[in-house]
Amino acid sequence: MKKGSSKQQLILALDALTLPIFEQYTLQSFVPTSIIDQEHTSSQALYMKSRAFDNILRTYSCTFTQSISPIFICDYVKKHIDIIDIAEPRYLEFSQYTPNDANIHLQSFFETVKAFSAWDIYQGDTSIVIAIVDNGFQQNHIDLKDNIAINWKEIENNDIDDDKNGIVDDYKGANMAWPNDGSQAGSTYNSTDGHGTMVAGVAAATWNNSIGIAGAAAKCRFFPIKAGKEGSDRVEYGYESILYAVLRGFHIINCSWGSANSFSEINQSIIDFASEQDVLIIASGGNDRNRAPFYPAGYKGVLGVGETDLSDAKTNGSSYGWHIGIMAPGYMVQTTDNDIDSYTIASGTSFASPIISACAALVKGKFPDATMHMIHKHIQQTSDNISLSNTLYPGMIPGRVNFKKALDYHPNTFPIISIKDWNMYHTKGTRFKVGDTVFLKLSLENIFTSIAKNTTVNISSLTDFFEPVRIIDSVIYIDKIDPYSTIIIDSIRIVIKESSDASFLLKADISSENKVFPYTLIPYRPIPSITTFHTDNLSFSLGDYGSLGFIGDRTIGNTGNESFDGLGFLIKNIGSILYSGGIIANSGDKILKGFASESNFEPSKRFENNSIGASMLLTDSLNPDYLKIGLTVKQTITSLKSNSVTIKYTLYNTSDQPIVNPGLALYADWDIGNYGRENKVELFTESIPEELRMRAQAEIAYREGTYNNKPYPFIGIVTIASSKESSFFPQSAGINSGTFEGLDADFAGLFNSNSSVQFPSKGDISIFSGGSFKKVLSKGDSAEFYIIFAADTLKNNVGQIIRNTINDLEYISSVINDSNTLKFCVGRYIDFANLDNELQIFPNFYSIEIFNVQGERVFISLDNNHSIQDEFAACTSGIYQVLITDKKCNKMSVTMSCVK
After folding, report:
1. Predicted local confidence at residue 94, as pLDDT
2. Are the CB atoms for 88 and 266 separated by under 8 Å?
3. DSSP 832
4. CB 228 within 8 A of CB 367
């Protein structure tokens, strides 16, 4: 929720919604009520100072019983409840292991990670506890029960939250699902899935007890947190469990689960809060066999873990890429199973992750004054280079953990230099093109108490046969980096060699005074599929496939959200007011769409820069014949002013067949404040000069009132044709987005609605702005019109901005001078019944020609002494173009409607 809002306000707002789904729902805070209500202890006061914790305090989980898309519900509540800041689906995370029913036998990874040698140095301490978040645990397993860190502030199985931390009976484990699955509050058992039990055995099976196996963390203990429902293999309450573990004071949290979903602001807030409280989260990197970002491993501050076999080769199933920071042998690991005395063998990054958690626990126990951030980097720093075992993935596989080296010396013994953040940019704009020199910006941190001297950063491209870039400044020298400080390097030059929007990786290797630090992988796209344009007060993005604002599907797929990009339509000091948008093309019953989530267009020429005059071409040539129109659309940026943008749209017939009555429009879903609730849209005719009102139409969207003592913005959109386009019929609609389905038939109707579709109420609104050309576009022919965007916090200012912008367009000129000599006239629209009266203002015409909507001439007269109405009395009902030519060969066109 937004700051200042209450849970009761949210409940009232949900109850007021008309969807049947909200007749029965439950709402639960991420933070236990007992934590919120208790008086502030010193630690609680510390939490309350945290911005990340403040975000979590305003977060609630809403559960409903009916079957309906959570993505739809999130979009719906964001648009209809103004106190909601973020609404995201809750994803049931998948356990990261590959079940294996092979014979049970010892498969020791201890030799590989040098655990035996490490235990000779240090054997752990029972005060160091690994919080393991998973879908269920067998707490009574003979090899686990004695190594659970008991919560002595709780009384076992009395159905009371004795320690007032919000969880009942969390004595030897926390069951985050018990209110929702009917299980016992203090029980972490999951009868149908033993994933958590297997993860716990790898890290913390009771050590040196003469039975079963030994946990990698030796004498360190664990605390099980059940984050899944009974009978499910999913992790449903993973991030609430992380928060619980942070509030309990655990320094190490193991998360052997996740999904390749998109970045979540709420989840990142929880991770940020954990980092602030000196907590290290270690997470499995995924078993998807690809480089798709995997979460929570991909969140900033999390140590993501990939899987190797006992020979140090990356397993076939393990994910890899920039979100993997360390490797561990999770293949064919013997561990505890779900019966109280059973064991099994399992594989996957799920079982690599607890090995790293065990190492972190040992390091924390031996060096208790080391921060978890230090330990994070120290484990990476002391890992073994396994590149020779992974030649199929050159430069992409980080080191494999080495327990002994991690315990050999204090994490603060030597400097550790790492990259905190990166960015690739162009000084002339965000869009790259072949031949451009772009810059890589790096933020380097020194987490050591002494100065780091003579640091070198080597930048290389990780490609085998295709080199999309050339790195000019491949080696960067840094004289010194002060203790606990960050420096910025923003002069690394890179030349774009190839046109590709595929994802590639740069590698940054760091060394200082002969000491080599863990590398960082930096993902990039040489030629992104989106261009962002800027004025003094506006920024907006155009996708290469016709979209406005963004590219990529907003919904979360199995491979994450790597393709999603763009700024939307952003107003300075306000933010983006656009939810989505794109172009719509039409001819007859055919509709082509160019949206972020779907497009019927392909770019044949992309924007090369983000300046005035930049243009791109879209074609429908790859569509099947039944859908193809044969149209190529050119978008040209003709004006970028402080508060306005003008785009020219040119339609070309690039097919062998004529195109009848082609149309093009821009559809935009505007969200002005609070996800678009209580927005209004209306015709904005007064912004158009009177003589042009038959050739142009305008809409304005806005929201009444203020936010943070500032007025909401107005956004005006105008569609207007060039003077030579006598067949242009402007179309403009103000739409209720909540009821508009966006089907082909819906858009086809808008192309013939003139300005009749106007949503009169407040709500979630969209604007359809464009037009159709009532003529036949033959091969090689073209037609064009303009769309103008104008924004300001005052409606009158928007109107004046639009008028000034129209006046600047090249095709506007005088209509008729004093001698009745025609230059050209824009915007005349007449009825057939008034044709003779209209023509009286042109006494010296040379000829009058009338054309039907197919572009065929159906009448011509070279005599102005007769009634044209009488001569053309045989006309049928329809729309016609009347072309008037004077004796100096100046021409004027008017549109005529005939109803009989």
Report:
1. 64
2. yes
3. G
4. no
Q: Which two tokens stand for residue 271?
A: 């991770």
Say how many residues make up the chain. Answer: 900
Question: Cα–Cα distance between 676 and 702 in angstroms, integer?
Answer: 9
For residue 117, give the nearest of 304, 414, 362, 290 by alpha carbon: 362
d(CA 411, CA 367): 8
Bridge partners (DSSP) of residue 631 are 653
DSSP state letter for 816: B
Q: Are 727 and 881 in contact (CB under 8 A)?
A: yes
* d(C-alpha 214, C-alpha 119), whole Å: 12
Residues 203/131, Cβ–Cβ less than 8 Å: no
Half-sphere exposure (CA, 13 Å, Cβ side) for 803? Answer: 14
Distance CA 508, CA 462 (A): 10
Q: What are phi and psi of 117, to 5 degrees?
A: -65, -35
Q: Whole-prediction pTM value?
A: 0.65
Contact 370, 411 (CB under 8 A): yes
Tokens 């106007």 sit on residue: 758
Instruction: Give, in order, the Cα–Cα distances in Å from 72 to each of 77, 78, 80, 579.
Output: 9, 10, 12, 14
In DSSP terms, 861 is beta-bridged to 848
Q: Which CATH number fits domain 829-898: 2.60.40, 3.40.50, 3.20.20, 2.40.160?
A: 2.60.40
How far apart CA 176 and CA 274 sit, in angstroms, is: 18
Closest by CA position to 365, among listed 326, 401, 407, 405: 407
Half-sphere CA count of 771, side-chain side, radius 13 A:
29
Q: Which single residue is written with the structure tokens 């933070």?
A: 31
Stretch(es) of the chain classified as CATH 2.60.40.10: 417-524
Q: Indicate the burial class of 515 (C-beta count within 10 angstroms; 0-12, 13-18, 19 or more).
A: middle
Where do you find CATH 2.70.98.10 in the chain? 602-808
Mapped onto helix, strand or coil, the DSSP state of residue 862 is coil
Closest CA to 328 of 343, 344, 347: 347
pLDDT confidence tier of residue 562, bands split at 50, 70 and 90: very low
Whole-angstrom CA distances from 374 to 119, 153, 283, 358, 523 are 21, 31, 17, 16, 25
Domain at 107-408, CATH class:
alpha beta
* Average pLDDT score over the chain: 85
In the chain, pLDDT over 70 holds for what percent of residues? 85
Whole-number Å distance between alpha carbons of 732 and 718? 8
How far, in Å, are 606, 646, 664, 771, 851 from residue 785 at the CA level? Answer: 20, 10, 9, 8, 20
Looking at the chain, which residues constitute the CATH 3.40.50.200 domain(s)?
Answer: 107-408
Architecture in CATH for domain 602-808: Distorted Sandwich (2.70)
User: What amino acid occupies position 625?
Assistant: D
> Contact, 462 vs 415, CB < 8 A?
no
Q: What is the dihedral of CA 328, 329, 331, 337, to 10 degrees?
A: -80
Nearest to 791 by CA among 510, 520, 577: 577
| Kind and range of the H or E run holding 383 | none
Residues 6+ apart with CB under 8 A from 49: none
Q: Which CATH class is domain 417-524?
A: mainly beta
Q: How far apart are CA 642 and CA 627, in angstroms?
A: 39
Tokens at residue 93, please?
């995370």
Closest CA to 308 of 393, 378, 379: 393
Q: Are 564 and 551 contacting, i.e. CB atoms less than 8 angstroms apart? A: yes
Look at 751 and 450; give whichever has higher pLDDT.
751
Are the C-beta atoms of residues 610 and 590 closer than 8 Å to each other?
A: no
Q: Find out whether 356 and 282 touch, Cβ atoms under 8 Å.
A: yes
Q: What is the DSSP string of 759-789?
A: --SSBSEEEEEEEEE-SEE-TT-EEEEEEEE
pLDDT in tens, 670-726: 988 755 778 999 999 999 988 788 889 999 999 998 765 678 899 999 999 977 788
